[in-house]
Amino acid sequence: MSDANVRIPEEAKARLAAIAAAEGLSLRAYLARLSETLLTPAERAERAEKARTALAQWNGYAPTTAEERDLDSELDRRLAQVTGQ
Question: CA 77, CA 84: separation in Å to the nearest integer?
Fold first, then answer.
């Protein structure tokens, strides 16, 4: 496996290194593991579509675009409320 250089602020590097060390990993190993666990926007969209399809088949749940937008807004409002933002 070849290595790549990534330029980030020193503070970000120090924070990531501390997180990695707390988990008993090198920064390199931590970033490699992180890259394997995070989803790309396309992967998230694909999973969301599969979930929508499964819900529609299971119980007929098929919100409109407007309903999805309203639900997203409500979720954002509730998250802001509990995080104090």
Answer: 10
CA dihedral 24, 28, 29, 34 (to 10 degrees): 110
pTM: 0.60
- Is residue 20 within 8 Å of 33, Cβ to Cβ? no
Q: Please write the tens of the pLDDT for every residue from 6-55.
A: 999 999 999 999 999 999 999 999 999 999 999 999 999 999 999 999 99
What residues contact residue 20 under an 8 Å CB cut-off, 6+ apart? 26, 27, 29, 30, 31
Eight-state DSSP code of residue 24:
T
Q: What token pair was written down for 83?
A: 């995080």
DSSP helix/strand/coil, 38: coil
